[in-house]
Amino acid sequence: MPDRQPRRPVPYFSQWETPAMTLAVVAEGAERALLRDPAWRGSGAATIEDYARWAGHLCGMACLRMVLAARGASPLPSMMELARGATAAGGYVEQPDGVIRGLIYAPLLPFMAEAFGIAGEIRLDLAAADLPALLADKDFFIASVHKDIRWPERHPDSRGGHLVLVTAATPEEIIFHNPSGHDPAAQADARLSPADFDRFFAGRGIAIARG
After folding, report:
1. What is the CATH number of domain 19-208?
2. How high is the pLDDT of residue 7?
3. What angle do CA 25, 27, 32 make, to 5 degrees?
4. Considering just the CA atoms, what is the radius of gyration of the chain in Å?
5. DSSP run (H or E) holding 166
6. Are 144 and 128 in contact (CB under 8 A)?
7. Are strands 201-208 and 140-145 parallel, antiparallel or unpaired?
8. What angle do CA 201, 20, 26 make, to 5 degrees?
9. Domain extent listing, the chain
């Protein structure tokens, strides 16, 4: 299949309302650092405490919001609007002790389809080298990676746990938006070789059909 480049600019959204707060989140944890986020109201949360509690779990919602923005959705739902919809569908589970579990892929798919007309499918057992062929047929790929992908020189001892939006892939590089990138180069259109991407990639994610 031919290599496919992005057909349109893809807007970038951080999973926190102030993208420059990533290093504070890394140092202190989201629930503490984001209590200082001056832009928290843009999230759609009822309180800053609710925002800080949820934002660390919203990488998948940031990816979905980027897809919606790329497709011209208007009005664009806030992060917490998306999170509330995904929670109602079973994509997140709030446990009695307040712990938030998710994002859970399977119930997210019908939510995306019913709310926004976005068709997705869960893909497993992939390598980065598979992504060029995948994106020759699909629009985007929401990939499960280790959060340290923002620092590509690192060698994490596990893979997965964080989601990024892969917008294009060739045999030479994987191009993606990282909702928790710490600087502009690690946020929008971050680029890694397939070998480097594989060090962080859990081999699974959600393929978004063309729309």
Report:
1. 3.90.70.10
2. 57
3. 55
4. 16
5. strand 162-169
6. no
7. antiparallel
8. 55
9. 19-208
pTM over the 0.90 mark: yes
CA distances, 30 to each of 8, 16, 147 (Å):
32, 9, 13
27-64: buried (b, 16+ CB within 10 Å) or exposed (e) per residue? eeebeebbeebeebeebbbeebeebbbbbbbbbbbbbb
Q: Which of 194, 163, 167 is nearest to 179 (CA)?
A: 163
For tokens 């990533």, name the residue. Answer: 22
State whether the Cα torsion 8-109-178-77 is positive or negative: positive
The DSSP bridge partners found for residue 87 are none
d(CA 4, CA 107): 29
pLDDT tens-digit profile, the chain (211 residues):
344 444 578 999 999 999 999 999 999 999 999 999 999 999 999 999 999 999 999 999 999 999 999 999 999 999 999 999 999 999 999 988 889 999 999 999 999 999 999 999 999 999 999 999 999 999 999 999 999 999 999 888 889 999 999 999 999 999 999 999 999 999 999 999 999 999 999 999 999 999 8
- Phi/psi of residue 27, nearest 5 degrees: -75, -35
